[in-house]
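Next comes a concrete protein, fold included:
___
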Amino acid sequence: MEKILIVDDEADFIELLKFRLADLGCEFLIASNGVQALSQARIFKPALILLDILLPDLDGLSVCEILKRQPSTRKIPVIFMSALSSEVTKRTVAMQADDFFTKPLDLPRLQQRIRDLLHMPVAK
């Protein structure tokens, strides 16, 4: 079973996301800040990371930059999720993020993007 690390400081948002993505058949790991995200990524090597940008202690942009510099985590796909403007999108692409979704999320499109990145079959 593929593991997806969800990194967001809003517990209600995480629960909603887990519920809406449940049909992917993945196990979800949770981190509520950047330091936890780095730790979870190093320990569990998730198949994909859904990463908010505005986080306590260490922002998502910094987390992504650190992950992409480390050989053990650099190939993990990262999808940013944020309510921030499209100007931030350009910075996330430069950091080798795999995609950027603006909140509120387009969940069907997010599900499809996750399937594409993880090479999962399309749901029937």
